[in-house]
Specification:
By secondary structure, the chain is an alpha/beta fold.
Length: 182
C-alpha cells in the first residue's frame, strides 16, 4: 500500500503540473537565451509581438499574478507614477498576466496606465517564459530582452519591491546599458 501511495503521489506531481514541473519550468530560461516569441493582445487593443521589436528596441515584460489585487495594483501604479525613468531608455515595456483582455483593459483604465498590459489567457506565453504558477497565474518576474531578442536579465525578486518597480526597472536598464531614447 505504501508503495502504491508513493507511486501515485509521484505520478500526480509529474503529470499534474505540481511543484516538480513548476521548478523545472522556473529554471528553464537563462540570461543569454533567446526570449520566447510572443504575440499577445494589450490593454491598448493592439497585438504586440516580440518579433516587431527585434533589431529595433529592447523589451521589458513584467509578469504579475492577477489584475485588481493589492500587489499588482501597487506594481502597476509604480510604473505609471515613475514611468518617466523608464521612458528615458529606448525600450518597449509592458506588464503581463494570464487575465483575459477585457479584465486587463478595465484594470489599466482604473489605474490610468500609460503603457499596455499584455493578456495571456491561454497561458502559452507564461509557460514559454516559465512563469506559470500552480494556480494558473503568472509569477511576478520581470524579463529584460535586448534588441537582439536575447534575455539580458531576469528579476525574480520583484515581489519584495513593488512600490519601487519603475525605479528598479530603470536602474536595471541603465545597468544593462540600454540605449537612451532619442
Amino acid at each position: 500500500m505504501k508503495t502504491f501511495l508513493a507511486l501515485a503521489c509521484t505520478a500526480a506531481l509529474v503529470l499534474g503540473g505540481g511543484l516538480a514541473s513548476r521548478s523545472i519550468a522556473a529554471e528553464g530560461l537563462k540570461v543569454g537565451d533567446p526570449a520566447p516569441d510572443f504575440e499577445l493582445v494589450g490593454s491598448d487593443g493592439k497585438t504586440h509581438k516580440l518579433a516587431d521589436y527585434k533589431g529595433k528596441q529592447a523589451v521589458v515584460i513584467a509578469w504579475f499574478p492577477k489584475a485588481f489585487t493589492g500587489g499588482c495594483t501597487k506594481e502597476c501604479k509604480s510604473m505609471r507614477e515613475s514611468g518617466e525613468a523608464i521612458k528615458k531608455y529606448d525600450v518597449a515595456y509592458f506588464t503581463a498576466s494570464c487575465d483575459d483582455v477585457e479584465t486587463n483593459k478595465k484594470f489599466a483604465e482604473s489605474l490610468g496606465l500609460d503603457y499596455p498590459i499584455l493578456s495571456d489567457p491561454t497561458h502559452e506565453a507564461a509557460k514559454a517564459f516559465g512563469v506559470l504558477g500552480p494556480k494558473g497565474n503568472a509569477m511576478r518576474w520581470t524579463f529584460y530582452i535586448g534588441k537582439d531578442g536575447r534575455i539580458q536579465a531576469i528579476d525574480k525578486d520583484v515581489a519584495t519591491r513593488l512600490a519601487t518597480s519603475a525605479e528598479d526597472m530603470a536602474a536595471k536598464l541603465g545597468e544593462l546599458k540600454t540605449a537612451p531614447r532619442k
